[in-house]
Amino acid sequence: MRDKQIQERKLLDQLNTIIDRDIRLIYPTTLSFSQIFEYLKELALLEGHPLQYSHLEKKVKISDVTQKKILYALEAVFLIRIIPLKGGKKNFTIRLEDQAESFYLRSLELKKEKNNIIELEGLLYRHLRCQFMYHLGFNFNLFQYQTRGGARVPIVIDSAERTLGFIVIEEEIPNRSELATATSFYKEYSNSSIIFVPFTDKSQPAIVNHRSMIIPLKYFL
After folding, report:
1. Looking at residue 40, what is its pLDDT?
2. Can you tell me the distance from the alpha carbon of 92 to that of 200, in angstroms, rounded to the nearest whole number?
3. Is the pLDDT of residue 218 over 90?
4. Quick one: 100 and 190 in the same domain?
5. Of 107, 127, 146, which closes a domain?
6. Does a structural domain hold residue 195?
């Protein structure tokens, strides 16, 4: 418990420095530390979901105009990454860039949920981003595929060679809905593949078909 308290104290001090010093160098706002911190906490809770300024304005009392400037500043200091949505919903979502910060901010509001899908998607995103970003000579874009019909591929890495989607799943093999999502993705992106990522301990790598396979989460960590 003591070690956890020390770790949380260090994370809060780190966020305090970034918010009260670094962000203000980019956007000299009159918002207080508490207001920006509350906004960042709400963003952490919305990881992987389409962002709605009106919802956040009700929660933290920050106008949509100011939110846009704060989002720009938060991304500029590498606290978040803005991820565009493609597939029908013209919007964007966000991902926090640091796993410890994401876990800490979410834990302030949410009770720990074992194997929470959104948390695991964030964990996978942060590991994948590091692997691809530091691979010299590899150019790629990140986006999230989401249709009005409910198909959702939370992590997509798009390069000149291939469009590769990742779907975190609860069972060892994809269910009918997850396979339908993959089919929707294939139709939208002809040169695409899907990797299903189960987090169960019993899961093993497997081929699903010529455009998809199963790779358990543990192999990415």
Report:
1. 96
2. 29
3. yes
4. no
5. 107
6. yes
pLDDT tens for each residue of 84-130: 999 987 899 999 999 999 989 988 877 655 448 889 999 999 999 88
- Find, among 217, 16, 170, 220, the residue nearest to 104 by Cα: 16
Which is it for strands 212-214 and 192-198: parallel, antiparallel or unpaired? parallel
Classify residue 112: in a domain, yes or no.
no
Residue from 186, 172, 181 nearest 214 by CA: 172
* CATH number for the domain that contains residue 144: 3.40.1350
| Same-domain status, 22 and 42 | yes
Phi and psi at residue 194, in whole multiples of 5°?
Answer: -125, 135
Taking a C-beta distance cutoff of 8 angstroms, is the pair 153, 181 a contact? yes
Residues 11 and 87 in one domain: yes
Predicted TM-score of the model (pTM): 0.91
Per residue in 146-200, pLDDT tens?
999 999 999 999 998 899 999 999 999 999 999 999 999 999 999 999 999 999 8
Q: Which residues pair with 198 in a beta bridge?
A: 169
Out of 87, 107, 127, pick the residue that ends a domain: 107
DSSP annotation of 19 reads I
Domain span at residue 195 reads 117-219
**Residue 61 CA: distances (Å) to CA of 15, 115, 136, 219:** 21, 32, 42, 42
CATH number of the domain at 34, please: 1.10.10.10
Structure tokens, 49? 């979901």
